[in-house]
Amino acid sequence: MRRVKLHDIVNARAGDKGNRLNLAVVCRDPSDYAAVASALTAECVAQIFAARKPSKIVRYDLPKLAAFNFVLDDVLEGGVNSSLGLDGHGKSLSFLLLDAEIEIAGSK
Amino acid sequence: MTSRVYIGGAAGFAGDRTDAAGPLVEALAQADGRRFLMFETLAERTLALSQLERRRDPSRGYNPALDRFITPILARCLEEQIRIVGNFGAANPKAAALRIQTIAREQGLRPPRIAVVEGDDLSGVLGAQELAARETGGAILRGASDIVAANVYLGAQPIAEALDRGADIVVTGRVVDSALALGPLAHAFGWRWDDWDRLAAGTLAGHLLECGAQITGGYFADPGVKDVPGLAEVGYPLAEIDANGAIVIGKPDGTGGRVDRQTVIEQILYEIHDPEAYLVPDVVLDLSNVTVEELGHNRVRIIGARGHPAPETLKATVCVDAGVLGEVEISYAGPNAAARARLAAEIIRDRLGKRAPDFKFRIDAVGVTSILTDDDGALRGTWGTASDVRLRFAARGAKPEDVRILLDEVEALYCAGPAGGAGVRRHVTPRLASASCLIERRFARSSVSMIEAPA
């Protein structure tokens, strides 16, 4: 096992719809897909976003793209509609994810 | 039979670059096939702002940048038979069409055939209570009486019809963004409206084009990790689609940016929820079998979109007045700046806590933590030793007077707060809230009309 920062092995892009955030996560090297799939669970993402108090997190798997789509409900403080923060769209939140570390199999 | 269709994605939002279309038009002029240029300029709230503009001036209410988008490329597009499809009509597509006629006349061009797609506006069709009853995923409309804008997302059929009728330019209000590409494709290839896999492929093409540079290196660059050459002059996407719905995304020669597996996959999943069920008016797009293949030279092939029958209901966006956002900022810099900023924040908390105990507000410290934290500052850790901190305070209210206490208290820190407080700026911004509704199809009465050139 090795400990890696997500920023070192995956790309991420944030998108919003109302108070719901989606995070597309793409393995930079498709051969990391299985390892990331077992480590970066919805529960793991729930911990990373604990301060945002998501009401629900779903992970969708796209093995043909070596990618995942995480959908996080109620993490945008009301979204552009009512957030007091500077980033009502949550566009920067992909980098909250990328700052986290996971344990993955292998010894690259 | 047309073997290839080329579509340039010239804009991804109302404030997008107005010089992005130029290189696309030159590339389209060289392409051998049917050529289209699409402009997506209508985010959720943009239409409501346009509606307010139209109320003030009935000849306005279309995208305020329309002139700057159209003026540089209109002559070349008419000359090269590159047809333009845009939702820059916003709340007043007819007025936008008339404005384009005027631009053509001023440039001494032949009068373009312009089609206007309408029927998305639900005002006068459904009342506030009827809309509230159809709201999904929230209760923004409960009890709301003053609807600023209510528009249903139309699909690609009226756009295809407008092109079938010979339009050089199609101006729409609210249509689903991807329809700006599916309409031209269905028109050019004669796709049937129950040919679900091809409709899905056309929807995917539109989805990949609708955010402009987000597929060519924009919203992607991360120096040292994801480098993008020439981002300052990034090229906007050019899609090449065949009759079976295979898509190749590229960009104009000589422009910056990059198109590869990584940029394309990020955009495939942008703002997607269930990848097996992306709902648009014409089809349900299933992305689970999609694959991408790098062809080299900034070209990527995307195939495998599958389609399922169109949804029964249509989505509508309804905007209501949501009061104001009040914001005020002050800076501290140099030795001990973080401690002085922290003292300033504590003074505001203390004074408002005593004088307006129910008043809720948010504090950010730009340079320490301002973006990833939430309204309660749950992520806020130590203030550290930052030597350049901008404090930002924000609150919401029904009217400007409701947030004045915060703005006044922060401004008073100039004389009565910590040393060196500088650069106060205060803003009160009107706010719109948008809600999503699901509407029965019978309420969407789309229509296509041709705008005749004035005599």
Explain what this protein looks like in three dimensions.
Chain A is 21% helix and 35% strand. Chain A is built from four helices and six strands. The longest helix of chain A is centred in the middle third of the chain and has 7 residues, at 33-39. Chain A is an alpha+beta fold. In chain A, strand 2 (10-17) and strand 3 (20-27) form a beta hairpin. In chain B, a hairpin with a 2-residue loop joins strand 10 (278-280) and strand 11. Chain B folds into two domains: 4-119 and 154-311, no CATH class; 319-436, Alpha-Beta Plaits (2-Layer Sandwich), CATH 3.30.70.1150. Chain B has 13 helices and 19 strands. In chain B, helix 7 crosses helix 8 (179-189) and helix 11 packs across helix 12 (400-411). The mean pLDDT of chain B is 95. The chains are: A alpha+beta (108), B alpha+beta (455). Chains A and B meet through strand 2, strand 3 and strand 5 of A and helix 10, strand 17 and strand 18 of B.
Q: Can you summarize this structure?
A:
The complex is a heterodimer of chains A (108) and B (455). With 108 residues, chain A is of the alpha+beta class.
Order of helices and strands of chain A: EHEEHHEEHE
Low confidence ranges of chain A: none
**Portion in strands of chain B:** 25-35%
Percent of residues in beta strands of chain A? 35-45%
Question: Key features?
Answer:
heterodimer, A: alpha+beta, Alpha-Beta Plaits, two-stranded antiparallel ribbon, 4 helices, 6 strands, elongated, B: alpha+beta, ten-stranded mixed beta sheet, 13 helices, globular
